[in-house]
Amino acid sequence: MRIVLVLQGGGALGAYQAGVYHALHEHDLVPDWVVGTSIGAINAALLAGNDKENRLPRLKQFWDRVSHRDSINMNQVSDEQRRSNIWLATLDTVLRGVQGFFKPRMFSLFPAGMAVKAEEASFYDTTELKNTLEELVDFEYLNQQGGMRLTVNALKVTSGELASFDSAEGVISSDHIRASGALPPGFPAVRIGGDLYWDGGLYSNTPLETVLDDLPHIDTLVFMVDLWSAEGPEPTTLDEIMTRQKDVTFASRSKRHIEDYVTQHQMQHKLRELYAALPEQAKRQQAGELAELGCDSTMHIVRLPYAGRDWHMAAKDINFSKGSIEWRWDQGYQDGLRAVKAAGWLAFVTEDTPLVVHELPPLVQVAA
After folding, report:
1. For residues 285 and 242, what is the distance between their CA atoms, to the nearest angstrom?
2. Of 249, 253, 272, the residue nearest 261 (C-alpha)
3. β-strand 299-305 against 355-358: which pairing, if any?
4. CA–CA separation, 156 vs 218, rounded Å?
5. Average pLDDT of the chain, as a whole number
6. What is the mean pLDDT of residues 94-109?
7. C-alpha to C-alpha distances, 359 to 35, 131, 226, 314, 354, nearest whole angstrom
8. Exposed end of the chain (fewer CB within 10 Å): N or C?
9. Using an 8 Å Cβ cutoff, are 58 and 50 in contact?
10. Are 41 and 355 in contact (CB under 8 A)?
11. Angle 353-359-364 (CA atoms, 0-180°, nearest 5)?
12. What separation, in Å, do the N-terminal and C-terminal C-alpha atoms of the chain show?
């Protein structure tokens, strides 16, 4: 099967995605295609823009560079002390930015409500991210034919339409990656080909539909990493409400896309049955159109949800504390191993099965 890795936007939570890839890498489940939005686009570029030997080292270099050094050993203090340290690290991110990623615009008139150039209409400048990407991503390698396919999504500012930049169809540069993560008003829009683009997560934060809409349909194994939870308890504090709001805003809408895909697949199957009843001459005339239906494929979707509670912090996506980054990477790695050990996609399914979703098995079940 074709292997696809689908990566959401989620800022500092994206270290979990790196951990998931780490587990896949160790078991030679290297993606043929990686689709990303925002921080998912950055991780995706680091994978597609390096050969297999350098992918993990480049991922580690990026996440080490953007991590905020902790003043204490996070593994040797109480939960309350860890939380206090993270609040300080998050405050430092707001005030000083993140090395190799973004920094505040000093003396900008934008915060005062004054008009500025469209490319400078933000609180932070992402020029450092451009430099980091061009250092850690080999864009010449990325754009060569025959390598790992890369698709990143961004929102066209003036029309509100989603744009997919695909290495199979055109050249990808660092600006395409920055555009995919240009979340306003923090980060500036990025101009590509005369048009301005914002973060693709404003339209759809989980780019699964990019894979579902890809033609022709072929047997595919999709690892979909969810950084935000659509489900959660009733919030009772301001922090909990703000966290819940952000979770719901950026959570995956994949359930609806999956239902639409299955319905379409079933209709195509019925059309094939009708086609089988046609006279031979009519079949030959319609052969090309039938091939485009491609309904005899099966897609397996392995969903890997980030389960970190992050003390109900609405700012968890800008928590670049080194201890938090390392913890998220390890959780992604462990969850990736659980998915690989379960290998639900190897179970028998009938030929007319359009799509199967595999959830992570309980920890006890894996241990057994």
Report:
1. 58
2. 253
3. parallel
4. 30
5. 92
6. 96
7. 20, 38, 12, 26, 17
8. C
9. yes
10. no
11. 135
12. 28
For 115, phi then psi, to 5°, come to -75, 135
Asked whether the beta carbons of 222 and 6 are under 8 A apart, the reply is yes
The model's confidence at residue 288, banded by pLDDT at 50, 70 and 90, is: low
Residue 211 neighbours by CB under 8 Å, 6+ apart:
4, 6, 33, 35, 220, 222, 299
Nearby residues of 11 by Cβ (< 8 Å), 6 or more positions away:
38, 39, 317, 318
SS3 2: strand
Q: How far is CA 237 from CA 133, 233, 247, in A?
A: 39, 12, 15
User: Is residue 282 very low, low, confident or very high in pLDDT (cuts 50, 70, 90)?
Assistant: low
3-class state of residue 181 by DSSP: coil
Which of the 8 DSSP states describes residue 137?
-
DSSP string, 328-355: HHHHHHHHHHHHHHH-GGGS---TT--E
The secondary structure of the chain in percent helix, strand, coil, rounded to multiples of 5, reads 50, 15, 35
Helix 52-66 to helix 127-136 angle (10° resolution) is 150
Token representation of residue 26: 């160790």
